[in-house]
Amino acid sequence: MNPLNHVAIIMDGNGRWGLKNKSSRNQGHKAGLNTVEKIIKETINQKIKYLTLYAFSTENWKRPKKEINYLFNLLENFLLNRIEDLNKQNIKLNVIGAKNFSKKLNKLLNLSEKKTLKNTTLQINLALNYGSKFEIINALKKMNKNNDKINEMNLSKYLQTKNTPDPEILIRTGNTKRLSNFLLWQLAYAEIFFEKKLWPDFEEKDYIKIIKKFKRIKRNFGNI
Ligand code: IPE
Ligand code: IPE
Ligand code: MG
User: Fold this and answer.
1) Which ligand is located closest to the Cα atom of residue 75?
2) How many A from CA of 100 to the centre of ligand 1?
3) What is the model's pTM?
4) Are 52 and 43 in contact (CB under 8 A)?
5) Would you say 28 and 16 are in contact if contact means Cβ atoms under 8 Å apart?
6) pLDDT tens, 174-218?
7) Domains of the chain, first to last
């Protein structure tokens, strides 16, 4: 059975779910939050140590202002209402991506990270204003500045996922088969699961099915 330390998820399909069920994309984002809660719980049940969630990409700024504002409001309220409980559950919150939001949200994100810094049951990497190409370029720039030797180990240390093992599993919901600038370096050997269901419809049982399937895959890493 394959060991499993880290699951990464592209939580896609909120907009389509919202339009179909509530005639509003934003209502889909709201519904997607329930799935986030369910999947966090199940990740802890499964004793998985790292969960990376793609919540907002560097490309998502192209969306209408109204949708962007709604998304960040949702995040703000989620943190305000849920961080105490996440902390009680010994969950560590780590934001990856460029934290250049409103002063209020930046402060809230920093506080949430600080509050949960020492927690050990599960680390959630929340990818916010995250783009993998930006992350890699930034890492290379820093390496160059520090005159560090360019090799795989050093580059991994300069990425925002430093101290996190590479994901063994990538899940993308929403019936779309692409990576959308997510963890391009870190997913080099991940097992990829494209799921037809839209994110708000994704359930624990779908997640468990993927984990079970993963555990039985013959992972070669170039070997035979
Ligand atoms: C993913 O769902 C969530 C975010 C990008 C914030 P989408 O909003 O991309 O949903 P679809 O793909 O349009 O249905
Ligand atoms: C990727 O989904 C980003 C997140 C889930 C946060 P998108 O829906 O933005 O991806 P594209 O634009 O369809 O590739
Ligand atoms: Mg989408």
Assistant:
1) 1
2) 21
3) 0.98
4) no
5) yes
6) 999 999 999 999 999 999 999 999 999 999 999 999 999 999 999
7) 6-131+168-179+191-216 (3.40.1180.10)
